[in-house]
C-alpha cells in the first residue's frame, strides 16, 4: 500500500529513480556506515579507558 502511494505521488519512475538510487539507497547507506564506524570507534575507545578505582571496566584477556 505504501509503495503504491509513493509511486502515485512521485510520478513517472524515470524522473526520480536515478536520484533515489543515488541518494536514498547509496548515499544514505554510506553515510550510515561511516557514522556507525566512527561512533563505534569513539565509544569503544572511551569504554577501554574508563577506570573504576584501580580496575578497568573492560580489559584485554
Relevant terms:
single chain; 61 residues; mainly alpha; two-stranded antiparallel ribbon; 2 helices; rod-shaped
Topology overview:
Elements: H1 2-10, H2 13-49, E1 51-52, E2 55-56
Antiparallel strand pairs: 1-2
In short:
The protein has 61 residues and is mainly alpha-helical. The protein has helices at residues 2-10, 13-49, and strands spanning 51-52, 55-56.
Low-confidence stretches: none
Shape: rod-shaped
* DSSP E strands, number: 2
The count of helical stretches stands at 2
Question: How are strands sequenced across the largest beta sheet?
Answer: 1-2
**Beta-sheet strand percentage?**
5-15%
Characterize the largest beta sheet: strand count, sense, and whether it forms a barrel: 2 strands, antiparallel
User: Could you report the average pLDDT, rounded to the nearest whole number?
Assistant: 86
What is the CA-based Rg, rounded? 22 Å
Helix content: over 70%
**Which series of helices and strands comes N to C?**
HHEE
End-to-end gap: 52 Å
How would you classify the helix and strand content by structural class?
mainly alpha
Notes on the structure:
By secondary structure, this protein is mainly alpha-helical. Helix content is 75%, strand content 7%. It contains two helices and two strands, in the order ααββ. Strands 1-2 form a two-stranded antiparallel sheet. The longest helix has 37 residues, at 13-49. The radius of gyration is 22 Å and the shape is rod-shaped. The termini are far apart. The mean pLDDT is 86.
Amino acid at each position: 500500500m505504501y509503495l503504491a502511494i509513493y509511486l502515485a505521488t512521485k510520478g513517472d519512475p524515470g524522473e526520480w529513480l536515478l536520484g533515489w538510487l543515488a541518494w536514498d539507497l547509496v548515499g544514505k547507506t554510506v553515510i550510515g556506515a561511516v557514522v556507525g564506524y566512527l561512533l563505534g570507534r569513539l565509544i569503544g575507545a572511551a569504554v577501554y579507558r574508563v577506570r573504576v578505582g584501580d580496575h578497568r571496566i573492560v580489559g584485554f584477556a
